[in-house]
């Protein structure tokens, strides 16, 4: 079993998140039964996997969608988030289990 590095010895980064991103990460972290930190690290590692120095630039398409809270119920939003997560997983070559 690999020995874990104490968290005080790991690199730390402060990130400014656009409005709503923290809540989306929290929902996904809860869904995946892991901490927000673990969710962020997993997503970063997944996005870095296909790229190696010398490759072309990786471009991520940013999709702008507005969801006024009062016009959607939580189950509908969670359903949409689930569908987007499935699409991202498939695009990354990883089917969700």
List the helices and strands and how they pair.
Elements: H1 21-31, H2 36-48, H3 74-91
Helix pairs in contact: 1-2
Structural class: mainly alpha
Helix content: 40-55%
> Major β-sheet, in short?
none
Mean pLDDT: 78
Shape: globular
Strand-residue fraction? under 5%
* Number of helices, counting only DSSP H or I runs of 4 residues or more: 3
- The ordered H/E elements are HHH
Calculate the terminal CA-CA distance, rounded to whole Å. Answer: 25 Å
- The count of DSSP E runs of length 2 or more, i.e. the number of strands, is 0
Uncertain ranges: none
* Rg calc: 16 Å
Verbal overview:
- The protein has a domain at 15-49 and 63-91.
- The protein has three helices and no strands.
- It has helices spanning 21-31, 36-48, 74-91.
- The mean pLDDT is 78.
Give a short overview.
This protein is mostly helical.
Descriptors:
97 residues, mainly alpha, 43% helix
């Amino acid at each position: 079993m690999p020995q874990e590095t104490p968290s005080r010895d790991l690199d730390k980064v402060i990130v400014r998140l656009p409005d709503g991103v923290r809540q989306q990460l929290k929902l996904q972290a809860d869904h995946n039964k892991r901490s927000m930190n673990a969710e962020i690290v997993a997503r970063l590692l997944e996005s870095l996997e296909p790229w190696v120095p010398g490759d072309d630039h990786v471009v991520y398409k940013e999709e702008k969608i507005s969801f006024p809270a009062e016009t959607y119920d939580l189950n509908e939003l969670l359903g949409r988030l689930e569908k987007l997560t499935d699409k991202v997983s498939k695009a990354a070559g990883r089917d969700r289990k």
